[in-house]
Amino acid sequence: MFMSVKWKAVIFLSLVFLLITGAWVSHHVYNTLKTYDNRVEENHIKQQQLLMQLLDDNFLRLSQLSQLIAEIPAIQGANFKEAPSALADALQQEWSQLNINTGLDFIGIYGTDGTHIASGYNHELFRNTKALEEAISVAMKTNRESSPDSFLFCFTGCSQFVVEPFVLNSGEEALIVSAQNMADIILRFHQISGQDLAVLLPPITESSGEETRILDNWRLRIWAASNFKESLAQLRQIQERTAFSEVTNGEVEHNGSRLLFDKLNLADYWAYGEKPILLTVSNQTQQHQLLISTLTSSVVIGLFALIISEMVLLFFMLTPLRRLTAVVQALTLLPKHQYREALEKVAKRQVYFRDEVTQLESSTRYVIRELETLHLEVEEKSLSLEGQIAMLSRSRAFLERLIDSSHLFIVTMTPSGEIRTSNGRFDKEFKRPLSNFSRLFTSDAATVDYHRKLDHLRKGDCEVIQFDAEFVNDQGVTIYFDWTRSIVEDEKGRDTVLAIGIDLTQRKRDEEALEWLANNDPLTGIGNRRCFQHDLHNLLDTQKSGAVIFIDVNRFKQINDLYGHPVGDTVLIQIAKTLGASVRASDSISRLAGDEFTIILPHIDTQQLESFLEKLSRNLNGQVILDNEDRTIEYNVSIGAALVNAHGKSEQELIVHADMAMYQAKKKGNGQWQIFDPDNNDLANLRRDHDLTSLLKLALKRTDLFQLNYQPIYAIEEATVSHYEVLLRLKDLAGNAVYPSDFIPAAERMGLIRLVDEWVLDNAIKKLATDHKTGADYTLSINISAPTLQSADFPKTLLGTLKTHRVEPRYVVVELTETAYIENFQMVLNNLQQISDAGVLVALDDFGVGFSSFSYLKKLPLSYVKLDGSYILDLQNNPDNQVFVESLTNMVNAFGMKTIAEFVEDAETLYKLQELGVAYAQGYYIGRPLPELDDMLCATGFGQSKKSKG
After folding, report:
1. Which of 251, 459, 479, 732 is deepest in the core (most CB within 10 A)?
2. Are 713 and 940 in contact (CB under 8 A)?
């Protein structure tokens, strides 16, 4: 069913207004009714409070009257035990007067135990004396505090009783009970509140002349009311048509008026005898009419607001909606290409206030013009559509040729694997007729894996599957493919599996070649270091016996240097072939690096190993013929071996021990072999070197193993310390000292001496910089080994360290040691000249040992020359040494240098050196090496340091 947007909008907004208006009216009605109910509830509370206040006031008045009555001489002088009848007559006479004057209906005297003594009362009002006495007795038993108390008693009527204790002249205690009916309370309630109050009681069975007060339907009688006749008439009429429970729960309509009956509670007051019902009657006619008027006004105002809002809505909505309808009509003409008629529908009009509809009209006009232009263009271009279709056909043919000539293998098939189409590359490789793709697989496992993945693809678990497979082509050649499959739709909309394959045959072969290279040496064709580690690991995991053999080619570097690397490669290849011919099938041979080979022999004992090594040593003593020079080059090897379990249970232990055995074989001469012997002293030295090497490497990384000590050098003539020599100390992990004579040669043998020298340089100069900042002024002499001095970058390292720590070069003395090991003297001379030119001082150590040292005096830029300690020991008792020392000192002085004497152990030696002209002294007498300069100065006692004068 078609409905205009205009009416949809009007209906929608009307519903919105209706909901808003209904919500407002409902809220106003709810608040009005709630206010009315609150007023009724407040009126009930006020009536209840007023009733209780009137009862409390009457209780107070009766209590005061009781106290006055108790003072009557007849009561005060009465004898309760001997003459109670006389007291009863007196009370009856007093009651008559009090009834007239105060309205009392009952006066009674009772013992403190509740026994009745005497009383005077209205016999008509209290006809049921037995019920009255029971009520008074119960009230007295309830109140055991001997204090005034009050309660209600209802039978013929309702009265308020007060029990008041008093004392006779004789000192005896008693209770006086007084009562007054509630008629006065009902009248005062009406006077104060302006509302009627009625007291309802059950009907009396015996005839009492009160039949006119009976409310038969309610089984009640009205005893008293503030407006008795009117209330009685109202209640008699209402009880005929309304149940009593309905009366007390709401308003009742009576003779055009709305009466509100409210049942009051006695609260804290006990009622004995018959149960009274206190019922208030108020006329709510005016308040009800006001409520109806208020509710009516709210509804009328809501309806009026709704009508006005609808009128305003129609006024503002109809014109824009008419314009919007015109736009819709114009748009419906566009599919019919009626562009002129559409423009007339949305023709431009005079508009004073622009809005969204105005913009829509403008946009619609623009769209109509653009569509008209496009329609003309489409008509023009449709003429060339046939040509474009022909071009697309040619493009499709080109794509088909392109796919056929692609190096990819492209196949389409049904979800079950039946081949539909394939490109030329696939057809060329597999010319045999194929109905199902799965027939190409070479193994059942590959077929099962293919169908499992294809099921995932068909079920939609994945969009693409990929798998590798081996196929055999028509020529019987195995081809490795990487296939990618996905589901596409063909031109008929059918699900088709598109398979694209890449030939991985060459890549597989390359991977196999790379894997071979990863585990084999390309020069010799045997295993490499990785293969050796793998085979050794397997040996330890799977075998209980075996051996590891290390082979090193002797003088291999000389062969390479003298005859070239091709000859060296020939030697390595021949050794590998000899090893391959000498070992068993279960054995493993490898080339670790350079001229080092290994053999792993499982299942071999010591006797078998010795026989094998002897044979292997003979076979590996071979030769290489030089064709161009018509000569031969001989070579031989050194072999070391270690047995599994006997010489080590871990890879590291076996490698180290086999290597040690190989070095021991080298010491025995060329072409020798050696099985590791834990008790061999030479091997123990090798192990010591190995341990020292590990300790030195660790010390270079940590800060707690190396320690610098300082020994003073004493200027004899000035009697002061000139400078200090830096001495390196080492501790092992247990804290034991390692002597320099042990770790320095080990560092040289293992190629670590340069790192040790650089560590000493950096830490000594850092110490020098720190002390100079605090005001110290001294020079340090640092020992540098021959390998470090022969390195081309030594000057750069030293001067760079001085610059980093901001120390002047004149505060450092470089002490040259081990001159006998200097091979490249020219490099040492150049390096020392560079640091000397920069200001660093140079000292020559151990001068006088060997005649070669004399040649250094003329060539090296020396500042100090240290005399060898062998000439200083026992100097005062050796005249020959004295002559020699004096001669050396004079010669050194002639070159402008100063001599330093080592091993000064006593004062006599120091005095003798002074006589011989030696400038400086060093030894335990001067001061022992200590890690702290301050402690060392205190030990020497030669005063403070003095800057070196060169």
Report:
1. 479
2. no
Examine the domain organization and report whether 788 and 912 are in the same domain: yes
Does 744 share its domain with 813?
yes
pLDDT band of 945, cuts 50, 70, 90: very low
Quick one: how many helices (H) and strands (E) in the chain?
A: 29, 33
**DSSP 8-state secondary structure symbol assigned to residue 418:** B
Residues 479 and 530 in one domain: no
Question: Which residues are registered as beta bridge partners of 601?
Answer: 547
Structure tokens at 273: 């005898």
Amino acid at 916: L
Beta bridge pairs of residue 635? 622
Please state the φ and ψ torsions of residue 940, each to the nearest 5 degrees. -75, -40
Please work out, in degrees rounded to the nearest 5, the angle formed at the alpha carbon of residue 242 by the alpha carbons of 236 and 246.
120
For 187-220, write each residue's pLDDT tens digit: 888 888 888 888 988 887 655 556 678 888 888 8
The reply to whether 664 falls in a domain is yes
Judgement on whether residues 223 and 177 belong to the same structural domain of the protein: no
Query: How many C-beta neighbours within 10 Å does residue 343 have?
Result: 17
Maximal C-alpha separation, the chain: 179
Same domain, 822 and 868: yes
Is 947 part of a structural domain of the chain? Answer: no
Tokens of 742: 């042990």
Task: Give a yes or no: residue 722 inside a domain.
Answer: yes
| pLDDT reported for residue 938 | 46
Task: Report which DSSP code applies to 545.
Answer: S
Do residues 364 and 355 lie in contact, with contact meaning Cβ atoms separated by under 8 Å?
Answer: no
Q: Do 138 and 71 contact (CB within 8 A), yes or no?
A: no
Cα–Cα distance, 817 to 829 (Å, whole number) = 14
799's tokens: 């001067």
Q: Read out DSSP for 10-21?
A: HHHHHHHHHHHH
- Pair 818, 901 in one domain: yes
Name residue 848's amino acid: G
- CATH number (domain holding residue 642): 3.30.70.270
Secondary structure E strands in 554-705: 588-593, 596-602, 622-626, 631-635, 637-643, 673-675
Q: In what order do the strands lie in the sheet with 106-110?
A: 116-121, 106-110, 173-181, 158-167, 149-154, 271-273
Task: Indicate whether 524 pLDDT > 60.
Answer: yes
Residue type, 705: L
Return the bridge partners of 497, or none: 413, 487
Q: Are 523 and 572 in contact (CB under 8 A)?
A: yes
| Domain at 459, CATH number | 3.30.450.20
Report CA-CA distances (Å) from 208 to 127, 199, 903. Answer: 11, 18, 153
Counted domains in the chain: 5
Q: What is the pLDDT of residues 382-426, one digit of tens each?
A: 777 777 777 777 776 666 666 666 667 788 888 777 777 777 777
Q: Tokens in use for 499?
A: 């398979």
In a domain, 2, yes or no: no
Chosen domain end from 678, 693, 720: 678
* pLDDT exceeds cutoff 50 at 851: no
Task: Please tell me whether residues 482 and 593 are part of one structural domain.
Answer: no
Domain residue limits at 443: 389-509
User: What is the average per-residue pLDDT within 466-477?
Assistant: 71
Q: Residue 145: which CATH number?
A: 3.30.450
- Say whether pTM exceeds 0.70: no
Please list, in sequence order, all residues whose beta carbon lies within 8 angstroms of the beta carbon of residue 68, skipping any fewer than 6 positions away: none
Choosing from 181, 199, 221, the residue where a domain stops is 181
Alpha helix ranges (H) inside 413-555:
424-429, 444-459, 505-519, 529-542
User: Length of the chain, please?
Assistant: 950
Residues 737 and 753: their CA atoms lie apart, in Å, by: 19
* Whether residues 564 and 529 fall in one domain: yes
Query: In sequence order, which residues have a C-beta less than 8 Å from that of residue 482 and are 6 or more positions away?
Result: 466, 467, 468, 501, 502, 504
